[in-house]
């Protein structure tokens, strides 16, 4: 995983076990022929975003939007 700082949720932590599983599943689905590279990337992106969203809710309950310039109440 990269050593550069990652943004805070809604992006999953780079050392997230769930994120590692999502990436491994994407690689395995391409290697087995179950999915194209494009399908695997789409699947990983959607599920990675969702897991980051859940992580963000845990880190900042009650926030409706956590974008640039939008502090958590």
Cα end-to-end separation: 31 Å
Structural class: mainly alpha
Helix fraction by DSSP (H/I, runs of at least 4) = 40-55%
Mean pLDDT: 78
H/E order of the elements?
A: HH
Give me a quick take on this structure.
By secondary structure, this protein is mostly helical. The protein contains 2 helices and no strands.
Helix and strand arrangement:
Elements: H1 17-31, H2 37-59
Structure commentary:
This protein has two helices and no strands. The chain is mainly α and 73 residues long. The radius of gyration is 14 Å and the shape is elongated. The termini are far apart. The mean pLDDT is 78.
Please supply descriptive tags for the structure shown above.
single chain; 73 residues; mainly alpha
